[in-house]
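Researcher: Let's do a round of design. I'm pasting the structure tokens now; please hold your answer until I've finished.
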């Protein structure tokens, strides 16, 4: 079966590239790999080698460590009885496929913009997933009402009497602070209807004295030119993050540094300090 025969024209560069990184780590299924992902990975190798040699870290390190930390926290939640999961901006993430192979009791809903959700739905069908408990649906987190809204997805697909975990990975830093705060506030209100909740997300820290500060600024300029989008940091430190999440209706926030939390794992470490954090917020 040629999984690459599916139309991938509407999938972002980062989704293609990240999917291939997960596949190389043996965390994914070949169905999630695209020709574009292989190509982007090959084109990125010279830059990755340079940044790894000069700065002690690269994009791959960040992608793998944030994914592993989110999975670690999600496994904790599943063990505590969170059997409903919503993954926002799912892209070509293998998380739902991987988790449900270990936890078939999960209700796992993947959500993304309509074209990506339709593509993911085709992939799940081809992988013979149990579409009663694992499916992809259309969602636009910026929609404040209507069937594509975050609130509608939560109301339509989940049992409000059961615990739920919501995940976003590789998403929030593409929005400015005011925009993502509004989304978080709406998410906080929506999750307050559930008995137990958890929101897991990665978030890149504001770099000042970090060795990668200049590189990130240049990369952001290139990203803006190439994709007409930008990359925005939201917090200077963990205290500011906690304050902002409390303002959005969350009662508790934990921030995890991959270099500390994964110090004894075999995953690559970011020399000079990790640029990403994984945040765990509860209402």
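Researcher: That's everything. Go ahead.
Model: Designed sequence:
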């Amino acid at each position: 079966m040629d999984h690459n025969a599916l139309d991938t024209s509407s999938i972002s560069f980062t989704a293609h590239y990240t999917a291939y990184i997960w596949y190389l780590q043996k965390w994914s299924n070949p169905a999630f790999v695209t020709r574009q992902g292989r190509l982007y990975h090959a084109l990125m190798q010279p830059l990755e080698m340079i940044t790894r040699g000069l700065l002690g870290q690269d994009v791959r390190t960040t992608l793998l460590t944030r994914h592993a930390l989110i999975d670690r926290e999600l496994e904790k939640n599943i063990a505590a009885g969170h059997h409903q999961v919503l993954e926002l901006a799912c892209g070509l993430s293998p998380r739902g496929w991987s988790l449900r192979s270990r936890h078939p009791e999960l209700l796992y809903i993947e959500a993304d913009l309509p074209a990506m959700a339709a593509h993911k739905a085709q992939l799940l069908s081809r992988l013979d997933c149990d579409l009663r408990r694992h499916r992809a649906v259309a969602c636009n987190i910026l929609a404040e009402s209507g069937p594509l809204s975050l609130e509608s997805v939560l109301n339509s697909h989940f049992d409000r009497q059961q615990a739920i975990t919501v995940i976003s990975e590789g998403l929030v830093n593409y929005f400015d602070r005011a925009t993502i705060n509004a989304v978080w506030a709406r998410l906080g209100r929506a999750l307050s209807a559930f008995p137990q909740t958890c929101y897991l997300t990665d978030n890149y820290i504001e770099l000042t004295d970090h060795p990668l500060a200049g590189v990130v600024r240049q990369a952001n300029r290139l990203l803006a030119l190439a994709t007409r989008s930008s990359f925005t940091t939201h917090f200077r430190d963990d205290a500011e993050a906690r304050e902002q999440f409390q303002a959005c209706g969350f009662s508790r926030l934990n921030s995890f540094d991959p270099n500390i939390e994964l110090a004894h794992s075999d995953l690559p470490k970011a020399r000079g300090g990790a640029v990403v954090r994984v945040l765990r917020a509860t209402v």
